[in-house]
Amino acid sequence: MNQPPRFADYLLRLFCAPHLREEVLGDLHERYYLKVQRVGEAQARRRYWREVRAYVRPSIIRRKSTIQPLLRTGRSEFPLTSVLSPDTIRNYLLIAWRNLRSQPFLSFLNIFGLALGLASCLLITLYVVDELSYDRFHEKADRIYRINVDATFGGTEQSLTQVGDPMGETLKKDYPQVEEYVRFYDVNGSKIVRKGNESIDERRSVFADPTLFNVFTLPALFGNTKTALNAPNSVVITESTARKYFGTPNVVGKTLEVNKAPYTVTAVIRDIPQNSHFHFDFIFSMKNVKYDWGNYLTSNFQTYVVLKEGVDYKAFNRNFSQIIEKYLFPQAKQKMKMVSAKDFNRGGNRLVFTLFPLTDIHLRSDRRAELDVNGNSQFVAVFSAVALFVLLIACVNFMNLSTARSAKRAKEVGIRKAIGTSRQSLIGQFLAESILTVTLSLLLALGFAALIMPFFNELAAKTLSVNRLFAIPILPFLLLLPIGVGLVAGSYPAFFLSGFNPIAVLKGTMGNNLRKSNFRNALVVFQFATSVILIIGTLIVYRQLNYIQTKNLGFDKEQILIINGTHALGSNVDAFKNEVLTLPGVTTGTLSGFLPVTSSQRNGRTFSKERVSSSDNRIDTQSWFVDYDYIGTMGMKMVKGRSFSKDFGEDSSAVVINESMARLLGYSNPVGQKIYSGGDATPLTIIGVVNDFNYESLRKTIGPLVLNLGTSTALASFRVNTQNLPNLLKQAETAWQKMPTGVQFSYRFMDEAFDTMYRAEQRIGQIALTFAGLAVLIACLGLFGLATYMAEQRTKEIGIRKVLGATTIGIVTLLSRDFLKLVLIAIVIASPIAWYAMNQWLQDFAYKITTEWWVFVLAGVLAIGIALLTVSFQSIKAALMNPVKSLRSE
């Protein structure tokens, strides 16, 4: 026994400076053994503890910051070996830099691959932060809500952003929780604004209540926004609009001619930020709206409310049932055989009002009559996942290449451990190398991001800038990124390399273990599994887009020229149509603002078989006004009956319905049957049934539709021959200029308008393709580096095999076989994951493709082919090497 107290020694080592430990412990132990002989063990142990306590003083605890040779005593004092000391960190970085320079090719692969992954991550981060920032610039953003309504009538479901005009006022009057409200009307309606001798068709306009500026934060440059919309014929415009029409922003008091009526500019506001779910250039006073006020049953006003602090909007939603019972049903009783909510709900009818948070509108709302094209939370999640996967693949590259180089670093680690370097110090060194590599990669990634940004902006329909990376909230993320990624990517190599047994390394008995790493193989599988998932996802997205483009929509969208703003022609619209019809290459034409693309007019009405209908048999439909030539021009087919014709004078009270409407009516042959619109007493006669055609996105099923013979001159559409299109457009513009409109000639083609309906899907397809390509490229860089290193490690083996008669093909197969096994495992793992994920995405479409087996086979073949090309280059190079040189290699 007779040993000093071990715990006392442990405490002394803990607080004593490293350069004094040996001396202090030696003196204490020497005195301890002398005291054991003189006073006994028990007394010696007690005195030993007192002496240990006596050493707890600054001169013993204080660490030396530099190495100081003490020539007088012949001893040297050494500094603290903490991994956090400046000298240690400086030494780590110096060694890391030397290691990077000693293997330039593998270092380049590491840095370049990480830079691509980081650049992808930075670009997607900018995109996600921008998408999440929508409408958050309003001071009351967390308390502003839009009133939504979900209605089901006669089996037809509608999700609307508009409610009746009194709803906001009623909420404020009846419920003290409501602080303020504002209504929008006629959003983005066409306004003809005069500018000198020119008339401009402006569509970014709205009628709004004076309370607009109490709800939303829209700073004024000139004028008083508190009173700006109080009077009729007053308008608030944006700064850019003021410069456009007057050349200067200070135009308060000046007059604009809008739709031939004078409007006084009462205020000029800053341009509405891009990250807003609405964008208006003209805000007109609600006092100019002529409307049947006080109607709860209509849905024409976007209404926003501000709740007071602390009010739970979900709990507040329960109040809408009282609103319906108190205000909506009394009005409904005047037009329907309905006496109670129970009567209304019978037959599956439903009417639900809810408050929807302002900050969720852009990403989580896809309803009829949205104020602008919204984003998609699914796309944000997909982009984030793709960026994360690409970054993980780049990190996996780093891990793989770092552990693969372990054979060359093994002797270094063994020698360092043999001379006393702790494992903690080695881990610090390898993590420092990792962080340095990531920092260099980040600098390169910033350059990549700046170069790619214009292409990415076009791809994502954004106006992002690299400068936003250096602003809050992204800057802290950017500063922590090298440390975070460095620790993630460098942790496994650090612990793997620092755990080597120095004796085994220096004896050379770890060679096989270094070459065989199950974890490294798992990383390769992860890389290629992720790449295969992205490849499969891209193939399925493009197949769905191709299906959308080629599906029989029930009408012919090709070669239809749409001329905008024809309502400005007034009484001359028929003359213009007739003149265009005389042009060479024009076959038919129609005047109607209602087209089977979402960028055109929509009009909802209810129809029933009876004059006074109960809620049970009312059918909520789209009701479009068209002319005699509409069905023929659109290339639609009559299933039963006939289309509108000038040969039948009674067609003014006739309608054509689609097949979906016929099914809901329940008639085996609806031709000749009568239907009623709302509470109208005059019946409408069904003269024909047109084939079902998609007039909404393919995400939605085809709903019931009624075509009415009537006036709707917002658009003129012509079926044309595109062989001599430039000349035809020039002649059409000449015909337009003959008319006294003053409005510029504007046109588009229906197939282009149709494509805009699926721009988001096209965008996600292009982004998926881009990042799938990046992921595959990064994975191939890692595989190439790994193949290069493994071929180098087996140089002597290859030489011996060649001397013994091995063929080039045999050696290539030998070197490639293990990698191909890993890729096959990756394909097996990736396929079910991709199948599930893409089936979930396709669920959003009412009309969609099926996930065919050959897509997965094609993705697998692509992955195998890419891996073979990557590995075979190094395999062939190694196989063709002169065996004499191979056997000389160390």
From TrEMBL:
Domain (ABC3 transporter permease C-terminal): residue spans on this chain: 385-502, 770-883
InterPro entries linked to this entry: ABC3_permease_C, MacB_PCD, Macrolide_Exporter_MacB, Permease_put_prefix
Keyword terms, alphabetized: Cell membrane, Membrane, Transmembrane, Transmembrane helix
Residues passing through the membrane, by range: 108-129, 379-401, 430-456, 476-500, 521-542, 767-791, 819-838, 853-873
Tree of life domain: Bacteria
Main location: membrane
GO molecular function: transmembrane transporter activity
Subcellular location as annotated: Cell membrane
Membrane topology, record value: Multi-pass membrane protein
GO cellular component: plasma membrane
Domain MacB-like periplasmic core: 107-320, 604-694
Name of protein: FtsX-like permease family protein
UniProt organism field: Spirosoma endbachense
